[in-house]
């Protein structure tokens, strides 16, 4: 399951600052007193912006403009009492106000089809861009830069001129786009977006927001990112624990705990749980070649979540050894005193030895996956009744 | 006949002295693959379980006549391993390594394509031509020789499907695991084209999953170019709304990536899509 490592707005802006992309002054705070102090330093009016991972913050009341100290306190309190992405808002960015003349939009990715760098630009920023793309696709300019192009601002000038930009605004915007495009390489970004990029009344071009996606697989080149707040907010407690142990955990909200060896297998298993009328609690993948310790740890994380009605372990032994999986199950069952019914499916490498170990401890395994999944669903329903 | 790989293909293992490299070099050899050498700079002249080790891919190719390489190198070194193999003139390159940074994966794919190298992966189980040879980690005991070509984005799910086909008496011509990463050397279309042109392949099974639009693209291709019957399966119907790829991703790809959309696209192209994995053999024999 592919997740992009989105940064929080302020983290993205720290990156922008490092590359001299203009941003307005701002301060990160965690309570209304700090917010008030920040607004005194920055000068009113200020924007009070929740630092959360999902978008459309304005529409969700997670961004407010405060014109007085009282408003700073009121809005800060209000936003800090709200939730986003299933967790409370804990951090606010207090930001200097900007005199906005025009709003642009820039977004860049590596095109999933051509693998080249694709840059989108519109002079109609600040609005819902996906809506704009549907209604008036011609309002969005597309520029393709072949992968590993040596990028300069001239790459963007013609397109921006076509969109009516001129003078200093033209050169500043082209410079920002070139910088952002280069950053994608040096910072291992999967997404670089500024919406809105504003032109102020005095003619300055400034990034008023940031949406930056980082490549989790490249974190070894950017070890500082492990300490980022976004890294902590991105995962639930179970997801985070699993990640640290090299497991993949995704919360799905149902009541059947599910463990698989391999991601595709996990998805197919979750599909079948629903097909048979059940509801998976999680997607938990120990990967191929899992050790007994990994299986044991996976079961510990799974059973730490309340409300489980049954557990389904679907293991196809390719490079995974099923005797290892069996050992992990038995160990976890003892150590964490698991009393929830466990349904196991074993097929593949060292299957006989695995089943023998299970039987010694009063468990058994199915050979085919579908009957096992049906059984787990049936048991979960029985628990309910 | 089969695609990409047969019993005469000479294979080297980049990273043969590592745990995975050594383990799977042996497994490949046991299955019948001609594993003619390994590469590990600084350990040239040594042997790993009787397989000669060379300091570079170029040297290994010159001395063994290898045309294919499989990479078991940690993610941080994968890009340079790909570049080395491509510049040495390899023809088939299988990258097993998972967790390769996206930029490195793109660079590797571009490099391979520019030099007409067939690259499979990264983050893939490799390929197997039953009864002849395998490159990668697909277990040899779950396949049997036959006329079904299998192409899949998933690892373990592929094994499950192969085992079910074998159990149902439906052997395979070649099975290719293309890997689950968004940027990869070969996609469904590349492999479908080869199956279509392979006399040993009479039917095709295609295993996809949610995310991206490779299945939708494959559906378009099948409609236009594939005359052999195709059975499909898509994993991830229950997964939550795909994690956003940002506006650019959404705008470029439109509303794609869901299991529903993929199934619909495939059915429109005449592909029989199985609701459950166990339906695949039945749909193939219809």
Task: Give me the secondary-structure category of chain A.
Answer: alpha+beta
Largest sheet, strands/sense/barrel of chain A: 7 strands, antiparallel
Which term fits the overall shape of chain B?
globular
Structural class by helix and strand composition of chain B:
alpha/beta
CATH class annotation of the largest domain in chain B: Alpha Beta
Report, as a whole number of angstroms, the end-to-end distance of chain B: 25 Å
Question: How would you name the CATH homologous superfamily of the largest domain in chain B?
Answer: Succinyl-CoA synthetase domains
Radius of gyration of chain B: 19 Å
Label the CATH architecture of the largest domain in chain A.
Answer: 2-Layer Sandwich
Give the oligomeric state.
Answer: heterodimer
Number of helices of chain A: 13
- Give the chain pair forming the largest contact, with residue counts: A-B, 63 and 60 residues
Helix content of chain A: 25-40%
Q: What is the name of the CATH architecture of the largest domain in chain B?
A: 3-Layer(aba) Sandwich
Tell me the domain tally of chain B: 2
Q: Quick summary of this structure?
A:
The complex is a heterodimer of chains A (385) and B (286). By secondary structure, chain A is an alpha+beta fold. Chain A contains 13 helices and 18 strands.
Q: Could you describe the 3D structure shown?
A:
The complex is a heterodimer of chains A (385) and B (286). With 385 residues, chain A is α+β, with helices and mostly antiparallel strands. Chain A contains 13 helices and 18 strands. Chain A folds into three domains: 1-24 and 98-234, ATP-grasp fold, B domain (D-amino Acid Aminotransferase, Chain A, domain 1); 25-97, Dna Ligase, domain 1 (2-Layer Sandwich), CATH 3.30.1490.20; 236-384, Succinyl-CoA synthetase domains (Rossmann fold, 3-Layer(aba) Sandwich), CATH 3.40.50. Chain A has helices at residues 9-18, 32-42, 69-80, 129-135, 154-162, 167-186, 229-233, 237-244, 263-275, 292-303, 322-335, 351-360, 369-384, and strands at 5-6, 26-29, 46-50, 63-66, 83-84, 87-88, 92-96, 100-110, 117-122, 141-145, 189-200, 205-207, 211-214, 248-251, 256-260, 282-285, 310-317, 342-348. In chain A, the strands form four sheets. In chain A, strands 1, 8, 9, 10, 11, 12 and 13 form a seven-stranded antiparallel beta sheet that branches. In chain A, helix 2 crosses helix 3 (69-80), helix 5 (154-162) crosses helix 6 and helix 10 (292-303) crosses helix 11. In chain A, 47% of the residues are buried. With 286 residues, chain B is an alpha/beta fold. Chain B has two domains: 10-120, NAD(P)-binding Rossmann-like Domain (Rossmann fold, 3-Layer(aba) Sandwich), CATH 3.40.50.720; 138-285, Rossmann fold, CATH 3.40.50.261. In chain B, helix 6 (188-196) runs parallel beside helix 7 (214-225). The interface between A and B is large, with 63 and 60 residues.
């Amino acid at each position: 399951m592919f997740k992009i490592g989105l940064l929080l707005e302020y983290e993205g802006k720290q990156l922008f600052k490092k590359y001299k992309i203009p941003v307005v002054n701002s301060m990160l705070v965690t309570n209304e007193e700090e917010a008030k102090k920040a607004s005194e330093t920055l000068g009113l009016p200020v924007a009070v912006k929740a630092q959360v991972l999902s978008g459309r913050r304005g529409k969700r009341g997670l961004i407010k403009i405060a014109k007085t100290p009282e408003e700073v306190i009121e809005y800060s309190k209000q936003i800090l009492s709200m939730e986003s992405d299933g967790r409370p808002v804990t951090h606010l960015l207090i930001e200097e106000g900007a005199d906005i003349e025009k709003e642009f939009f820039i977004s860049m990715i590596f095109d999933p089809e051509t693998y080249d760098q694709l840059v989108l630009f519109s002079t109609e920023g600040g609005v819902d861009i996906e809506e704009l793309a549907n209604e008036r696709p011609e309002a969005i300019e597309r520029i393709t830069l072949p992968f590993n192009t040596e990028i300069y601002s001239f790459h963007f000038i013609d397109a921006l001129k076509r969109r009516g930009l001129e003078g200093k605004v033209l050169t500043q915007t082209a410079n920002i786009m070139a910088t952002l495009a280069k950053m994608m390489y040096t910072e291992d970004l999967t997404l670089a977006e500024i919406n809105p990029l504003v032109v102020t009344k005095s003619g300055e071009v400034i990034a008023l927001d940031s949406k930056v996606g980082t490549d989790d697989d490249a974190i070894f080149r950017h070890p500082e990112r492990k300490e980022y707040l976004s890294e902590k907010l991105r995962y639930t407690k179970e997801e985070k624990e699993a990640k640290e142990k090299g497991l993949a955990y995704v919360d799905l909200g149902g009541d059947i705990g599910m463990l698989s060896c391999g991601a595709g297998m996990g998805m197919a298993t979750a599909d079948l749980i629903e097909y048979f009328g059940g509801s998976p609690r999680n997607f938990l993948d120990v990967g191929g070649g899992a050790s007994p310790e990994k299986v044991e740890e996976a079961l510990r994380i799974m059973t730490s979540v309340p409300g489980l009605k049954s557990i389904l372990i679907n293991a196809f032994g390719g490079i995974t050894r099923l005797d290892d999986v069996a050992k992990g199950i038995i160990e976890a069952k003892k150590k964490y005193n698991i009393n929830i019914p466990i349904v196991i499916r074993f097929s593949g490498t060292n299957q006989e030895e695995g089943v023998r170990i299970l039987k010694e401890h009063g468990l058994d395994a199915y050979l085919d996956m579908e009957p096992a999944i049906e059984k787990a669903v049936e048991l979960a329903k029985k628990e309910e009744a | 006949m089969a695609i990409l790989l047969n019993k005469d293909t000479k294979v080297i293992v980049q990273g043969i002295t590592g745990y995975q490299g050594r383990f799977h070099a042996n497994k490949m050899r046991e299955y019948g693959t001609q594993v003619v050498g390994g590469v590990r700079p600084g350990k040239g002249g040594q042997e790993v379980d009787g397989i000669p080790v060379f300091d570079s891919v170029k040297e290994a190719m010159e001395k063994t006549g290898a045309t294919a390489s499989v990479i078991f190198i940690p993610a941080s070194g994968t890009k340079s391993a790909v570049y080395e193999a491509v510049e040495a003139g390899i023809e088939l390159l299988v990258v097993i390594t998972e967790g390769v940074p996206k930029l490195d994966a793109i660079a590797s794919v571009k490099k391979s394509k520019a030099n007409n190298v067939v690259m499979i992966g990264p983050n893939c189980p490799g390929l197997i031509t039953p009864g002849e040879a395998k490159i990668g980690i697909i277990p040899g005991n779950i396949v049997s020789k036959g006329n079904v070509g299998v192409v899949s984005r998933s690892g373990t799910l592929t094994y499950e499907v192969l085992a079910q086909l074998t159990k149902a008496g439906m052997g395979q011509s070649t099975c290719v695991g293309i890997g689950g990463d968004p940027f990869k050397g070969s996609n469904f279309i590349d492999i479908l084209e080869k199956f279509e042109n392979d006399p040993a392949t009479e039917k095709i099974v295609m295993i996809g999953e949610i995310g991206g639009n490779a299945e939708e693209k494959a559906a378009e291709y099948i409609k236009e170019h594939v005359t052999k019957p195709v059975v499909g399966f898509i994993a991830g119907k229950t997964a939550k709304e795909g994690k956003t790829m940002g506006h650019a991703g959404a705008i470029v790809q439109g509303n794609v990536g869901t299991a529903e959309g993929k199934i619909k696209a495939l059915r429109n192209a005449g592909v029989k899509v199985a609701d459950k994995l166990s339906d695949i053999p039945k749909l193939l024999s219809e």
